[in-house]
């Protein structure tokens, strides 16, 4: 193999730059030329790429975002687009393409593999951690820290004003960030897709809990962590309902994009470096159609389809603890 390429796709995640650095330096170590396509799959279609050298990846390990830029590319779903990408990769003489992104990006990688004879390898880079075949995705640990820091700060106002706060965290349709940030911040209540009830049940449950906690503590400060896409009309509408029903002021806080940014924590940098180096070595061994991930401290390859076919479960013990602590708070 002489030439290898990479791109970052979907939502950016802290640690993507650390991963790019590891891929570039490992490729150079093995004497490969390495190319970075810009703006996700758009770069393949537009032939927008850079020849990456060691100097391009100096001083980036600590930076959030991605030096290659990321993007959504809806047109890439068509067969024609995949064929154009395959042709462009062949023109440049690329033999293997590494795709850093989430499950959508891996669908894109698989789609390309159906039309291209080169090797395709995925690396899990998304804050949501909703990719099977790895314990954690690159960016996930940093997103928890960012959410946690914000929740701690909101709690100061919740305590000072004796208010209820609903804090919406990211996760697409998965509760990994929500569960971990809620446990670590000692949130009073949590609403996750994996343990969600009907809206009526959820409302009844939360109102009873607020009442019990108010009696127990003698104040009305209360924090709920809610994952995005969970309450049908959004957390703002839920906050209005809770204000009316409890007569306690309830405010929504949507953390939003701050969770995707920032300097990666050490766990994300180390994971990104490990997976980046391993992906290059896997490409040199001829692997294709797989995602590299880490399970129980071992680096493993998973068929790309298996990264999205099953919903990755939350840690059941963590869910149980959260539920137990919630129940204890209700006791008089
Ligand atoms: P995140 O969830 O963190 O935002 P992601 O990789 O899941 O990351 P998506 O927006 O779902 O983000 O997908 C990224 C890109 O992957 C899409 O914009 C598109 O270019 C490509 N893609 C997604 N699904 C497909 C598909 N079925 N076929 C071809 N390409 C796809």
Automatic annotation (TrEMBL):
A molecular-function term among this protein's GO annotations: ATP binding
GO cellular component annotations of the record: 6-phosphofructokinase complex
All residue ranges annotated as the Phosphofructokinase domain in the record: 3-282
Superkingdom field: Bacteria
Major place of residence: cytoplasm
Keywords carried by this UniProt record: ATP-binding, Cytoplasm, Glycolysis, Kinase, Magnesium, Metal-binding, Nucleotide-binding, Transferase
InterPro entries per the UniProt record, alphabetical: ATP_PFK, ATP_PFK_prok-type, Phosphofructokinase_dom, PKF_sf
Pathway note: Carbohydrate degradation; glycolysis; D-glyceraldehyde 3-phosphate and glycerone phosphate from D-glucose: step 3/4
Cofactor: Mg(2+)
One Pfam family this sequence matches: PFK
EC number: 2.7.1.11
Biological processes per GO annotation: canonical glycolysis; fructose 1,6-bisphosphate metabolic process; fructose 6-phosphate metabolic process
Location(s) in or outside the cell: Cytoplasm
Catalytic activity: beta-D-fructose 6-phosphate + ATP = beta-D-fructose 1,6-bisphosphate + ADP + H(+)
Family membership noted in the UniProt record: Belongs to the phosphofructokinase type A (PFKA) family.
Protein name per its UniProtKB record: 6-phosphofructokinase
Protein encoded by which gene: pfkA2
């Amino acid at each position: 193999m002489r030439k290898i390429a990479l791109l970052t796709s979907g939502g950016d995640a802290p640690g993507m730059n650390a991963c790019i650095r590891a891929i570039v330096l490992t490729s150079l170590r093995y004497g490969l030329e390495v190319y970075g396509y810009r703006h996700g799959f758009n770069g393949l279609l537009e032939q927008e790429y850079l020849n990456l050298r060691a100097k391009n990846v100096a001083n980036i390990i600590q930076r959030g975002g991605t030096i290659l830029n990321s993007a959504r590319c809806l047109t890439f779903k068509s067969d024609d687009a995949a064929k154009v990408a395959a042709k462009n990769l062949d023109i440049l003489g690329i033999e293997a393409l590494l795709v850093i992104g989430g499950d959508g990006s891996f669908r894109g990688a698989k789609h390309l593999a159906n039309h291209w004879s080169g090797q395709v390898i995925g690396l899990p880079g998304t804050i949501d951690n909703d990719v099977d075949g790895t314990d954690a995705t690159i960016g996930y640990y940093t997103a928890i820290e960012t959410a946690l820091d914000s929740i701690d700060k909101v709690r100061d106002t919740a305590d000072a004003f004796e208010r209820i706060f609903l804090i919406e965290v990211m996760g697409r349709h998965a509760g990994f960030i929500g569960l971990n940030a809620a446990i670590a911040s000692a949130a009073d209540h949590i609403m996750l897709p994996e343990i969600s009830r009907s809206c009526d049940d959820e409302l009844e449950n939360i109102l009873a809990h607020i009442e019990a906690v108010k009696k127990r503590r003698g104040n009305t400060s209360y924090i709920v962590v809610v994952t995005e896409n969970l309450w049908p009309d959004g957390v703002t509408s839920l906050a209005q309902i809770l204000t009316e029903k409890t007569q306690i002021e309830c405010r929504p806080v949507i953390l939003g994009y701050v969770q995707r940014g920032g300097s990666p924590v050490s766990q994300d940098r180390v994971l990104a470096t490990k997976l980046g180096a391993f992906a290059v070595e896997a490409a040199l061994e001829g692997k294709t159609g797989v995602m590299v991930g880490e399970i129980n401290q071992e680096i493993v390859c998973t068929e790309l389809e298996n990264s999205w076919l099953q919903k990755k479960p939350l840690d059941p013990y963590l869910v149980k603890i959260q539920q137990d602590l919630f129940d204890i708070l209700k006791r008089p």
